[in-house]
Amino acid sequence: MTANAGRRIVVLTGAGISKESGLSTFRDADGIWAKVRIEDVATPDAFARDPEGVHRFYNARRRRLVGGAIQPNAAHVALARLEGAWPAGVTVVTQNIDDLHERAGSRNLIHMHGEILKARCSACGVVVACTDALGTDERCRECGIKGAMRPHVVWFGEMPLELERIDAALDACATFVSIGTSGNVYPAAGFVDRIRSRDNVHAVELNLEPSEGAGHFDETVYGPATEVVPAFVARLLGARG
Ligand code: BV8
Fold first, then answer.
1. How far does residue 5's CA lie from ligand 1's centre (Å)?
2. Mutate to test the pocket of ligand 1, among 113, 186, 232 (most ligand atoms within 8 A of CB)
């Protein structure tokens, strides 16, 4: 495939792109959902039922992310390089709540499932940076209400963020690249079908193994993200028309 430089690219990433940086995925055998249940930590009901338990789940993941051992990997860096070298524009839509794309240099980036390094007040809606532990004794710096701060992440049953901006990017792109996602979670898993309804669009899956939606892609390359993503980007940049 030689996507000429006049064609916009949308990249969807999932937990697999951060695996080789040392962060767990969700549905691999050693993944997060093998250790905790979605219903206990990643739904509004879970937070209403056991806020301290949900805070403990996200505090542990936040502590690991800010601890210094987790760094962007060659796949994150390759996507930032592509964005800097592709005049028609690259939009990265990530399901991940880590900050590895930003730290690798991606700028045109949408966190559709939120960000673990931000907190939101359920009472007044303010969103603030958050690198420390959250708890029910936290007081909102904006409205002063105690116990309303929550991780700024999208739980199951909640509306993902910036869907209109994402749909506009999908409807304007000529190449859609899905990286490191199992294709289990919607609406992200349905993005490939949205773009395939248009002509002259190329859909690519770069993953460790075929995802649930593998059959919906025109091109698939399987292997670790730190190998297949830099190679794909080099091929794109080398083949610019
Ligand atoms: C919503 C945030 C209403 C916090 C997460 C149809 C339409 C719309 C909704 C639904 C629908 N059907 C069902 C639903 C409801 C639900 C859903 O999808 N349920 C699933 C389980 C069936 N969806 C929702 O509730 C969403 N909201 O629907 O609102 C609506 C309705 C219509 C239209 C719009 C809105 C909200 C979902 C968001 C939930 N929050 N996380 C947190 O992170 O804790 S989801 C969670 O899963 C993460 O965000 C994660 O990123 C995401 C997806 O998982 P993956 O990233 O794909 O990770 P996974 O482990 O599954 O796969 C990793 C892949 O990497 C694997 O393929 C593996 O092989 C690969 N890999 C591993 N190592 C490597 C690798 N690849 C390359 N290199 C490696 N080294």
1. 30
2. 186
196's tokens: 């395939």
Does residue 227 line the site of ligand 1, with CB under 6 A?
Answer: no
184-225 confidence digits (pLDDT tens) = 999 999 999 999 989 999 999 999 999 999 999 999 999 999
CA dihedral sign, ordered 70, 76, 120, 191: negative
pLDDT tens for each residue of 109-157: 999 999 999 999 999 999 999 999 999 999 999 999 999 999 999 999 9
Which residue has its alpha carbon closest to ligand 1 atom 33? 187
Q: Return the active site residues.
A: 113
C-alpha closest to that of 20 among 82, 80, 98: 98
User: Quick one: residue 171, left, alpha or beta (phi over 0 = left, psi -120 to 50 = alpha)?
Assistant: alpha
Cα-to-centroid distance, 27 and ligand 1 (Å): 10
pTM for the whole structure: 0.96
Is residue 32 in contact with ligand 1, taking CB distance under 6 Å? no
Q: Please, how many CA atoms are within 13 Å of residue 83, restricted to the half-sphere of its CB?
A: 20
C-alpha 11/C-alpha 153 separation (Å) is: 20
Amino acid (1-letter code) at residue 208: L
